[in-house]
Amino acid sequence: MAVINFASDLSGSAGESISRAKMFQFGFPAPVLQQPFVLRDRRKAKVDFWFEEQRVVGEFEGKGKYLRADGGAGLSIQQRVMKEKAREDQIRAQGVGFVRWEWDEMMNRQQFIHLLRRAGLPRK
Fold this sequence. Notes:
Elements: H1 14-25, E1 32-38, E2 44-51, E3 56-60, H2 64-67, H3 77-92, E4 97-101, H4 103-107, H5 109-118
Parallel strand pairs: 3-4
Antiparallel strand pairs: 1-2, 2-3
């Protein structure tokens, strides 16, 4: 299976494309990419993966969004992490499940399957 087949201009990173390829390979449902959610202050927050039928959000956690100098808008790493936590809390408050994974988890077949199953995603 070629990961390039799962590349999309909606994917925010190579990690998101690889995640989607592995979801397909392991028999999980196809997610909607970059689904927007409206937060309390009316801002929109897009999530990496949205499994509408199961009402579960999936997020690939590349460290770049926390460590990149250009992605922080003048915020410290601690402030970026807290901002992301608040975003997740507001999305969860809408009655959806939420699962996050990093490179190591995604690259470990059993661990990735376990994370997605524990979040309520079915396999074929």
